[in-house]
Amino acid sequence: MNKLILSLGLPSVLWGATLMLCGCGGENGGQPGPAKGGQAETSSATPPTLVLLGMQDYFNLELLDLFEKETGVRIDYQLYEEPDEVEPRLRSQPGSADLIVIDSFNLQKLRQLHLLRELDKSAVPNLTNADPKFLNLSCDPGNSVSVPYHWGTTLIAYRKDKLPDPVRSWKLLWDQALKGQVMMLNDSFEPMAVTMLLSGHSAETLDDAHYSLAASTLLDHLKSMDARYGDDGQVKSALLDGSVTAAMCYSGDAAMVAAEQPNVDFFIPEEGAMMWVDCMAIARDTRDPVAAHAFLNFFLRPEIAAANTNAIHYASTNREAENLVNEELKNDQRLYPPPALRAKLQLVPQLDRERDALVNRHWYAVRRQVMDGADPEPAEPAAAPGATAAAAAAEPAHLAEEISQ
Q: What is the pLDDT of residue 14?
């Protein structure tokens, strides 16, 4: 991790005063306000603490320390392996988390379930630093509950010491020469999206037949390729130690692994890739909404956003941070794709009841086989990857509509 040299801005004493005096409403309308009974309960000997839920290696830890120095608020950074873990935790353990970093697909679900707190925009003035193309997305119209954090793609990372000249296609993950050496992300949607890209379907499709084909293709892939599934941390570890040759991987993770292990490289497949935007939000039952808003505002500062990108290698959504990002990262077209390449990307579709039902029903058989090795329920025969089935019900959801070039 790069050493961080930053101006601390407001002295800690002033920041502490700011957190104590910051005006905020009560509980009405979900507006930020003190916990019931007054300020958040903290021991005089224990500094106030915010629990942050996020993924492995998704924050520059020095910045979390810097936030504590500036504000006196400690960050307890707790990891989840899969986004699906967040909803049940917020439901069953209210008050156990204050801040969440999550993808737009799952953010929409949390928002619709009223598990997130409405933002007090006056307490997040640095939101004006965000690139407008990452604001007001359909997952959170008007950014009522979230601020953009980072964005990226899901691509292929590989070991070039074992595979010096790979085909630049998702078909690589079906290459029989790599049997037992392929890893997929254990995500309810993205592996199915890969099969849709190979079949010429849009990730926006709501056609049950397309989802059935995707699930059967993945079940066949499990057997024919002896494919492994893992979370992002397991994928990174397997690439580092060489136990897999090729894997689905998030762009920033791929860049971090490649920086650590020279034998790892990565690419956006020729068929295109899924693009996603991750966001930060405040849990509905946060114990300290004032400090939680201050955390969001802190990470929207240009120098903080740039220092975070430089450490974790994920593209920033902060327009004012662009000139502060390392040139090597900023010029890497796999992390910051040019317009011609962006035209091949499809934004992960937003959740609705119909899509949620499709994903859950068809992913269940795959997950059951991955987790338990149980015999899946009968599925339709899988078409070979790349075979084009019936035309998709919807045109590909390219970035032009929500994230303009």
A: 38
